[in-house]
Amino acid sequence: MVRTSGIRCVAGIYRPDVSGLDRDELIDIYTSWACIVERDLEPLRAAILRGDKPRVREEWSSLTRRYYREDQPFTQLSLDVLDHHVPAAERRTWKLATPKRPWRR
After folding, report:
1. Considering just the CA atoms, what is the radius of gyration of the chain in Å?
2. How far apart are CA 57 and CA 53, in angstroms?
3. Are the C-beta atoms of 29 and 37 separated by less than 8 Å?
4. DSSP letter string over the chain?
């Protein structure tokens, strides 16, 4: 079950600006977390630049296992960072699958 306590839904979209989760101190936490995810992307980006297909897939698999878990904090933020730095077109090129959320039914 996905916990959404404290997040208000507007038109089916959970928005931090509506729920008060866009306070400066929280934005600092989100930004720090995004920097951690970005740093973890470095080996993947290096493998892509080298054209090392097996390593690209290994790194992507490692990242998605690490950040695509129900017990992981800021899961959606992590996925947004991954999506931003490895957009769908690039994932298709490398045949990198974005796993489905196992805890959503």
Report:
1. 15
2. 6
3. no
4. ----TT--EETTEE-HHHHTTT-HHHHHHHHHHHHHHHHHTHHHHHHHHHT-HHHHHHHHHHHHHHHS-TTSTTHHHHHHHHHHHS-HHHHHHHT---PPPTT--
Query: Within a 10 A sphere around the Cβ of 83, how many other Cβ atoms?
Result: 12
> What pTM, to 2 d.p., does this model score?
0.72
Residue with tokens 């805890």: 103
Cα–Cα distances in angstroms (integers) from residue 82 to residues 39, 49, 51, in the given order:
11, 17, 19
Residues in the chain: 105
Phi, psi of 103 (to 5 degrees): -90, -5
State the 10-residue block means of pLDDT for the chain, 105 residues long. Answer: 39 53 78 90 97 97 88 84 91 88 54
